[in-house]
Each structure stands twice: as C-alpha cells, then as structure tokens.
Amino acid sequence: MTAPPSLLRLPLRVATALASAAMSAAMAGAPPPVPDTMAQRMQPCSACHGKEGRATQQGFFPRIAGKPAGYLYNQLDNFRSGRRAYPTMTYFVEQMSDDYLREIAAYFASLDLPYAPPQTVGAPADEIARGEALVRQGDAAHGIPACTQCHGAEMTGVLPAIPGLLGLPRGYLVEQFGAWRTGQRKALAPDCMAQVATALTPADITAVATWLSAQPVAVGPAAAGTLARPLPLACGSVP
Amino acid sequence: MRASRVAALLAVLLLAAAVLVGWLNVRGEEPLAGDAASFVATPEQVARGAYLARAGNCAACHTDRGGAAYAGGKGIATPFGTVFASNLTPDARTGIGGWSAAQFWRALHNGRSADGRLLYPAFPYPNFTEITRPDADALFAFLRSQVPVAQVNRSHELRFPYGLQASLAVWRALFFSPGVYEPVVERSVQWNRGAYLVRALGHCAACHSPRNAFGATRESLELSGGLIPLQNWYAPSLASSAEAGVADWPAADVAALLQTGLAPRGAALGPMAEVVFRSTQYLSNADIAAMTEFLKSLPQTPPHAAAPAAAMAPQVRVHGEALYKDHCAACHGANGEGASGPDGVVYAPLAGNRKVLLDTPANLIHIIVNGGFPPSTPGDPRPYGMPPFGPSLKDDEIAVLASYLRSAWGNAAPAVSALDVLEAR
Fold first, then answer.
1. ipTM for the assembly
2. Any idea what the Cα angle at residue B120 is, between residues B195 and B24, rounded to 5°?
3. Is the residue at B5 inside a domain?
4. In chain B, whose CA is at the least distance from the CA of A45?
5. Are residues B198 and B170 in the same domain?
6. How far is CA A22 from the centre of its chain?
7. Contacts of B379 in chain A (CB under 8 A)
8. Does domain A125-213 have CATH number 1.10.760.10?
C-alpha cells in the first residue's frame, strides 16, 4: 500500500517551508546574490575604461560606451589575434569565445551615457585651425581623406564598424596614430588607417588629436546609419 | 713523460665520454622505415589525431597569436633564451610535408628532428616520449591534413652555450631517456588512461613539476608544483592538499574545472585558463573521468609546517583592512566569504582559499595586479571577471593588501613584501 498523494505532499510542504525559512535566515546577513547581468560581468573593464565604459576626462583610456558594436568586436578580436597590442586587453580576451566577444561588444555599444566636457582647452589657434581643416577637408595633395568622409559628418561613427572620434583623450588619439605608423596597431587588411597615419606628419597628427579632443559632444550622439560609398580608401574592417 | 701520459689518459676519457653521450642520444631509436609518400592516413586517424592534438595542446605553442594554425613561429621564453615553435603544416619546404611517419615518431619519442638535429626540450618530448605509436601516427595524419602554410622556421635565440647541439647532447645524456607508458596492472583501465593523458599527451608536468638548474623536470617530484619560467605564475602541486591536489574533491568538481574552467573551490586563471580553453574543454567525458581518477589518486604530501605568519603590525593590518573594504569586499564579501549567483560560486571565497595561501605569493600578486577572466567555455560561456588593480594600487599597497588576505579570517600564511610585488609584476 502506498500513501495517498495528498498525505505525502503535506510533509513535503512543511519541509520546503522549513528549508526556505532556514535559507532566508542564513541569507539575512549574507550579501544578495551576484546579479546575472552583463554590467556585473564587465566590472573588470571599468578599472581603465571608467564606470560603464565611459572613460574619464583626464585618462588615457578610450571611451567604449556607445561605440558601434561591429567596431568594438573588431577591436576585441584584434587584441585576441595580435593585430593590436596592449597586454591587459590581450590577457582579458585571449580565452574568450567569439560569441562572448560579440555579446560584450553589443553590451558596450548599447550604453548611452553623457559625455564628459572636452579634455583639451586653450589650444593654439593655428593648431586648432589645421586640425579642423584636416578633419573636415583632408589633405588631397598628400592623399589624406577628410575624417568625416568615413567617420560621419558629425564624427559620431557609422554603423556597424566605424568608430566615433569625439570624446576620446588626446593622448590616446596621438598614440593610436603612432601605433599605426609603427605597425603596433593593425586592422584587417587592407588597413586604411595605417595608410592615413603614414601620410600624416607628426604635426598633423597632433593638430587632429587636439581639435578632436577639444570638441564638446551633444547628449546621446548616435552613430550614423549609412555612409556614402565608395569609401575613399579600401578598409578590411568595413566590408 | 708523465704529463703526456696524463694527457693521453684525458684524451681517452674525453673520447669515451663523447662516445657515451653520442650513444645515449640515439639509444632506443628504431630504423626509419618508409618515406613521406608511403604514409596513407585513414579518416579515422585524422579525426583521432585532431582530438589528440587538442589533448596535447599542440596549438598552444605551434600556432602563433593571429597566425595560421600549426604554422609555428611563436617564441617560447626560457631561462636559456627563446625557442621558436616550428611549422607543423604539411608544407614540403618549410613544414613537415616531406616527413615520414617514422620521422614524426622519432621527434615525439626520441626528440630528434627529421634532419637528425636534436630538439630542445621546450618541445616536451620528455613527456611525449610515452605517447604510443598509434597515437603518434594519428597526430601525424591530422597534421598532414592541414592546409600547407609556407612559413620558414625561425632560428632559436639561445645564449651561449645553450645554442650548441653538443650542449644539448650532454643535457639529453643527463636528463632524457626515451620511454613507453607501462600500464600499472594493479590500477584500473580508466586510471591508466588518465595517467597516460596527464603524463604523456597532456604534459602537465611541464608546468606542474619543479625544474632543476638545467631546466629539466624532476621525475621524483612529479607534479609537485613548479614556477613557470619567466611567467611569474606558479603551477601549484597536484600532489598536495595545501596547493592544488584534488584527492578530497568530488570527482564532479575536478571534471568541472577541466571542462568549464569553473569549480566550486576555484576557477582556472592565467596559464591554466589557457589549458582549459584550448585543450581540456574538448576532452570526452570518459577521458576527463580518467584524468580525474588518476589525479585524485596522486599520493598527497602532508602539508609542511609553514613558517608561522608573523603577527602584522596593527597599523599595517588596519591599512590592509581598509584597502580590502575599498577594493575587494564588494565582490568577495565583507569577511572573505565570496559570493554566488544563480549558477553557483561567482567570486571565490578568500577565507581558506588555497590560491591566497600558497607559499609563493606569485599567483596572488598576479591576480591582484592583472585581474582576469576564467575561460569562456560551453559550461561557463559568459564568465565573470576580476579587475586589474595594478594600475590603481602601488606595490606597497598591494603587499599590504596581500598580507592582509593571508592573515585575515583564519588565514595564516607569511606576509608579502613590496619587493615580492615588484618581482612578480
């Protein structure tokens, strides 16, 4: 003979109630469970990129919040594959699957956070003028396209894989050009930015970085959705 | 008269030593039968070889970052200089396209290349020598099925006299003898399979065993822990319950660590994260069970009485506690108890944590300075991670914090100095 189901259920219910009471007692002094969120998983990134991927005004590290997901994924893969070299980034991503890198890229791309005030103030007028000319018109005589031709008229990037150029630290911008010139930073071939960086003079690079880092950024600047084709240069990371 | 006799005697002795070294370097070698064309692989061999290549983690060295699979070129830093991994793709000129199966076997089993050169033991043939011939042939079949990549092998960059073949011959005479895996009859088939995977293919001893001054692993101290040369990571002892021994772990936890990188009592970080990511996550349940049985059976050395931790000066303790509250407690808990999410432990408890308490503080310092993520695997596809504190904390602060971790909540391990941090950074 087996007991009717209802008789079995009663002690089970009592046991369940007791167990949950005991658990909540144990939990009373315990911290809440770790949130099952990307924000929690990406805590390590904030050590350099700032809270929620928004770089600090003074820092060297680039803002990653709100950059196009395709661009961010390409950079994560570049670090994993050795096309970009920064030991901490390589160390963080080298044992991550493609799926996770795409999710990380999508997470930071989805953040829409206010920008800090521009970092560069009071730069010499001639440097600012040269920088703005290069950004808006380029330098046809030296084969340098305008930044705005690819990065969008507002320089807020173009989906899915061209980054915005505003709100970045001046030192970071200068170093990226330097890294492209020396081959320390690469992108998928053909590497258009390596061509641009090589064509610019050191003074041009300084001027461009100065002007870009002096621009205020409006709230929530979205990356542009489309771009006039063809691009002035062939870029492997923008298929 | 006497001098010339001594000289003659010396010459004879030198000649005898040279002959002995020469003989020791070729002992156990079989005649090379067949050539490159005479080896015909079966599809089963190729598939088996692909699996074995992962079990042996060949790609960890033979695939460079961002480079073509198995085309070599990656530099392996050793205390004697840098050894560059070779091209294993079947390119006829620069890879192993012209090799016979017998030559490939001789490389694994005897540590000699197809052209007769002695190989450097950064290629872990002291472990691979126990790989069976059928497994070697399967690996060869798999590598020959790869896309040939023309990439010339880079010359090693070793300091004098380590770059000389004669020096290597002496090293091999002293520290290498070819071997085969001899099953232990008192043990189960599964145990023997695990021992074979751990000792031969998996070459776990390459990191987890101590090395002598000549860079040779010491067999008598098998898997008893070793500092990985030039990486500042300590591969903890698998034969000590105070380090990374798993004798008292549930088998399921050992399997979880190897297959997912995450176990209730710890996650794989640093070099072990790479091992899980590239190798052990792909192993079959049967092979993981076999390795688990073997690892759980390793004789555990009793924990030696550690030097008693000197009592921390009260102001240092207060400083350490403050650093802990500011930087660590949000994740690891107010009392080092760790924290869990819906699927189990996310942030490791630090109270009683073996990583924190290891005699050598290298790993603890590494983790505080660099942070890191466990590998993303199907069993833990979206790992949580730890921030790097190297950019925000000074050496002496890290030393104080590490010392606090090693003495709080019942932990008792020697303090860490700023010099330790400087050395490990």
1. 0.93
2. 80
3. no
4. B387
5. no
6. 45
7. none
8. yes
